[in-house]
Design a protein that fits this description.
The chain is α/β, with parallel strands linked by helices. The chain is built from 14 helices and twelve strands. The chain is globular, with a radius of gyration of 20 Å. The mean pLDDT is 96. Catalyzes the first step in hexosamine metabolism, converting fructose-6P into glucosamine-6P using glutamine as a nitrogen source.
């Protein structure tokens, strides 16, 4: 039941504040993160982990890429993120000190399931981040941290994505507490930030109309580029994926630092480029670097749509459009910045008269290789 919304996707995009709040529920206790499923696994197991490999496909892999920055920062354990179908065919170096975290909304993605089985046979510990109770992947894993986003019907993943990031962040904060790798203050601030994500997501959703208008103006666009840096990089990749699958438009996401290593050659007058801008307050030197990227592409005629923090005035002279996200700590911005990109892709699909919930050639869960 679409509950009055014109598509399941629209409904699910609007449910993101609840998806995150429900995923956090019972796991945050006055600034202390305790994930019951990890308690059951035991602190000794967590202390024995020397590296973490996240395996997933598509949007779920981008959630893993975002979480890598946070887990490494808080828990100081190296994290690599790999596509399940690449992982299982390359004889990965894993063993009992490796924790393999699979991320899957459906819990049935064949490549991810086979990668989990491979990891288990190699002696690794396995944790599943999954949105579907009792699905195959969590059953095949040592522990499951469920996301509580509720059923996701639209083929394009939205609320599951933000819930996956929230769950992986909870994992990172729990691990950091057990390992003692972050100060009590840092852990508390992060827990506080996490707790405020749902309300901030609701604020971002209020810009839906404006983004819809932008999408309508751009309905004839043939190619869109997305740039981001640090945690904004996987968000750029996710923005491009959403646009490809929903609006059938050629889209590419790049790490902003790569521009000069090739992609800037693509910029010609009128080329739309979405830029995920890090916060000017607490991202160190990243903010001026991304602003200077914006100047570089603008000088070559790009049409820049910046996704920037409220009050960030530095982007104004150079961006054609600015979509705002509320103030948040640097690691928490991706949870907010992805939303305008989801809405843009959804509205562009609708503007082109396409099936938003069931894009061509795609299935909700890929249970074949
Ligand atoms: C994109 C999308 C896919 C899935 C991918 C993994 O919008 O939905 O990229 O994220 O097929 O699916 P799960 O998470 O079910 O393993």
């Amino acid at each position: 039941d679409k509950g009055g919304w014109s598509s399941f996707m629209q409904k699910e995009v609007s449910e993101q504040p609840t998806a995150v709040a429900d995923t956090l529920r019972g796991r945050l206790h006055d600034g202390r993160v305790v994930v019951g499923e990890l308690e059951e696994l035991g602190d000794d197991v967590l202390r024995s982990i020397r590296r973490i490999t996240v395996i997933a496909c598509g949007t779920a892999a981008y959630a893993g890429m975002v979480a890598k920055y946070a887990i490494e920062k808080w828990a100081r354990v190296p994290v690599e993120v790999e596509l399940s179908h690449e992982f299982r065919y390359r004889e990965p170096v894993i063993g009992p000190d490796t924790l393999v975290i699979s991320v899957s909304q459906s819990g049935e993605t064949m490549d991810t399931l086979m990668a989990v089985k491979y990891a288990r046979e190699a002696g690794a510990r396995t944790i599943s981040v999954c949105n579907t109770q009792g699905a195959t992947i969590p059953r095949e894993s040592d522990a499951a941290i469920y996301t509580h986003a509720g059923p996701e019907v639209a083929v394009a993943s939205t609320k599951a994505f933000v819930a996956q990031i929230a769950a992986l962040y909870l994992f990172g904060l729990h691990l950091a507490r057990v390992l003692g790798t972050a100060s009590a203050e840092e852990l508390e601030t992060a827990a506080y930030e996490l707790e405020h994500v749902p309300a901030k997501l609701a604020t971002v959703l209020e810009q839906g109309e404006r983004i819809a208008q932008l999408a309508h103006w751009m309905a004839d666009t043939r190619s869109v580029l997305f740039l981001g840096r640090h945690v904004g990089y996987p968000i750029a990749l996710e923005g491009a994926l959403k646009l490809k699958e929903l609006a059938y438009i050629h889209a590419e996401g790049f790490a902003a630092g790569e521009l000069k290593h090739g992609p800037i050659a693509l910029i010609e007058p009128g080329q739309p480029v979405f830029v995920v801008v890090p916060s000017p307050r607490n991202s160190g030197s990243l903010h001026p670097k991304v602003v200077s990227n914006i100047q570089e592409i603008r000088a070559r005629g790009a049409r820049v749509i910046a996704i920037a923090e409220a009050g960030d005035a530095a982007v104004l002279p150079f961006a054609d459009e600015v979509l705002r996200i509320p103030l948040a700590g640097p690691l928490f911005e991706p949870l907010l910045a992805v939303v305008p990109l989801q809405i843009f892709a959804m509205e562009l699909s609708a503007a082109k008269g396409l099936d938003v919930d069931q894009p061509r050639n795609l299935a909700k869960s890929v249970t074949v290789e």
